[in-house]
Protein 1
Amino acid sequence: MIAAPDRTPLPRTFFDRPVLEVAPDLLGRILVRTTPDGPIALRLTEVEAYAGESDPGSHAYRGRTARNGVMFGPPGHAYVYFTYGMWHCLNLVCGPEGFASGVLLRAGEIVEGAELTRHRRLSARNDKELAKGPARLATALDVDRALDGTDVCAGPEASLSVYTGTPVPSDQVRNGPRTGVSGEGGVHPWRFWIADDPTVSPYRAHTPRRRTS
């Protein structure tokens, strides 16, 4: 089980800050997904920041839509989107309400409930790969659009919640370009990860998708 200090929920004020402060500060925190079969806890090891309507790489760059509406709401909520017709990705909304910034959860270490994730991630060669990448993380935690808008500050009764964990010292945090983001949005060094952690996903530059005839 998770040690008692990790069971202190992060307050909403933690998320009500600029996205470039929140993103690296999420490393080492504990995300808990409560399922009917039991809890799954994940230590965050890699994240990516998106700065709303000022950021060409953000879903909110062109304003509010039915898809991204949660991003414009209060901080401390989950924004879940479906991509490429195949995968879900999980983000945490931060910054002042109306600004639409958020942090994509890219990778983590399953520290509790790994047995509940392995049947969803049959291609993982070991437990370090269970949540190594944003789509894999969401798949391992059984995250889909039904969790869009979940209040992650609501505590242990919520289906998704974030706890204090063990913050990572600044000298162990690395940053670099965001993975797979094209154009102007791809130049920002707003991906943050824990140095030398084996659960961190490999960097990949954007590759244009080919249209099939």
Protein 2
Amino acid sequence: MAARFAVGRRLRVLDVGMGQGTQALRLARAGHTVTGMERDATMIAAAREALAREPEGIRERMRIIEGDGRDTGVHFLPGSFDVVLCHGVLMYVEEPDPLVAGLARMLAPGGLLSLLVRNGDALAMRPGLAGDWAGALAAFGTTACTNRLGLDVRADRLKDLTATLAGIGAPLRAWYGVRVFTDTAADGAEAPEDLQTLLAVEERAGRTDPYRGVAALLHLCGVRG
């Protein structure tokens, strides 16, 4: 966002599948007008609770809508947002192309579409690094996997999403790897003393070939023409 828009510009942001609102709140605190969309009642309750603890000015900049990301056209007019986020959602959608196309329609010209997806080209990395050779072998050539919550999800390949974004008029401008080295870290593990160094390493790897190609997740940024 910082690279795409002028410093100080107040953006209209749609966060589809906002979860408990962590990203949406950060953007509202930064001065942007944010709409969070979520269908899970538990997550919505957590987001509303977190928002209620914020100062009035931030509460006024954020609204929460209960709904499915595939129904954005029901709630908003085309071109209503400068930025659309869809992070950690596509992995739960069997046919992602219609959803992504609908998100792109919500963008104003020059708007930014931000997707965070499971990397289908690196599914063998986690079981392989854990010494699960049978699991690693089974992961080659598939886009099916089980996430940390024990749910069966699907992954996306960079080549396929690049083609999808080009086809809907929001071609890929930049992409990054997320969790290059830390995907095998135990859930709930305490942050290391050198956390800032760890984050610096992850960010550098996420921008650098060949490391970003084997990241657990991919962050893709498309721009509406």
Protein 3
Amino acid sequence: MSLSFFWSKEFLTNRYFLWLLFWCNALGTVYGYIWYGDQLMDTLEKQPLWQIVFVPDSPTASLFFTLSLLWILYKPKSLWVNRIGHVIQALAVVTSVKYGVWAISIIFAGWSQGNAAAWQDWMLIASHGAMAIEALLYVRFFGFRWVALLIAALWTLLNDVMDYTYDIYPWLPYTLWDHVDLVRNFTVVLTLLSILVSWLALRQAKRS
């Protein structure tokens, strides 16, 4: 069996593998929301309730991807259900690429400023790297088009605005507390790059 088999449509869309991927992502999503537990509680105590949806960035990206797999496993006949699925899939790709790269970058930035490395950091690097990779691997099996991608782009940019306007961005390593402006600028640029990468991946997928 060649290595290319593991990147093939035959393997990646195998129902047994899709269910394995679904449950891995579902469990990771639950763990991600638990990881954000303290920040969610802090936000509920200090901020308006409506802002809570913008707090858990990575788990929500993982949730989008987890749900997206259901549209591959069970292709709906309803046009509107399909369209909802396409928006979720577009959100999955843009946000998984964005927050996958963001988390890894922030960890390395924290280390570069003197933050001590912990085993949890390596776990986060592995899991967030997987988020970005799986999103780009599966974009060719998703059915979304340009309108859904535009909605996903606007949502992700809105999330950046909410995060850095109301200070509900993910908690940073203490060594980066004095560099929030730089983190904000990096985050917005990364969002734009993630949208571009998602568009290029989608374009390539529709050509193949």
